[in-house]
Amino acid sequence: MAKYRYTAKDGDGNRVAGEVDAPTADEARRLLEQRGLDVTDVSSADANDSGAKRPLSAEDAEQFAGQLAQVTTGNLPLAPGLRAAAKESASPRVASALGSIAAQIEQGRRLEDILAEPDGFIPRHIAGLLMAAARTGKLADALSELVEHHRAARALRRSIASGFAYPLVVACLATVVLLFVVLFAAGNYETVFYEFELTLPLVTKLLIWWRHIGLWVIAGALVVGLIMAVAFRARRGRAGWLRLLATVPLFGPLCRWSGFAEWASLLSV
Fold first, then answer.
1. I need a surface site. Which of 81, 143, 167, 262 has the fewest CB within 10 A?
2. Per-residue confidence at 212, pLDDT binned at 50, 70, 90?
3. Helix 58-73 and helix 139-180: axis angle, to 10°?
4. 37-46, 101-110, 185-194, 254-263: which has the minimum mean pLDDT?
5. Please, are residues 64 and 98 in contact by the beta-carbon 8 Å criterion?
């Protein structure tokens, strides 16, 4: 037996909302009509609850803000507008979140109270921004600027990724060629060198050393580094881990300053 949320009108034309247990949505609608209610909407309460408790991803949060911005900008009734946006959303999680908010608003809750929940489905700093905007009556403006912020942040990250793409591809190809030479081609030459008892230059000796020992040293160092990183992350938490990454040459300053850029853009909203 599943649980469904409903909104309906009674015989006097008053709007009522609640929950009903039924095996299917059609059966829930039939039970409500037997009670003399004019049913306007029936949705799964279990799906809405799970969508509200699981935080949305960054992409889903952006879609959620965009849908909410359209509803508030169009001066539509909030709950029906959210229901309509949920039906048009391509993301099931966004649709579930919008439906959950609509159901709670129909039950008499304010949008600020829903966003203030500690286990909400959107990041807490975004929820705080929306709460402040709703209290000042500028929710539509803030949502529109928030959508633009997300688009600008995504464009910034895409620009950084495209800048790193070429050198990373070259480095990966060079690594593949080097591994092929060390693991496959160098073996035959090593046999010839030792059979003729040739005096080898230092570079060739290093290549042979890498073939027998160097790769294992690198593999061991990677394993030890991974274990240390996991231990550091568990002990120092996310903040300590980010501080450590900020000290990495080239990568650290890039992440730090791009993060500051996104923070400043979000703060301007």
1. 167
2. confident
3. 160
4. 37-46
5. yes
> Do residues 103 and 49 lie in contact, with contact meaning Cβ atoms separated by under 8 Å?
no
Sign of CA dihedral 65, 70, 75, 77: negative
Distance CA 171, CA 242 (A): 25
CA distance 208 to 202: 10
SS (H, E, C) 47-116: HHHHHHHCCCCHHHHHHHHHHHHHHHHCCCCHHHHHHHHHHHCCCHHHHHHHHHHHHHHHCCCCHHHHHC
**In angstroms, how far apart are the furthest CA atoms of the chain?**
105
Amino acid at 86: A
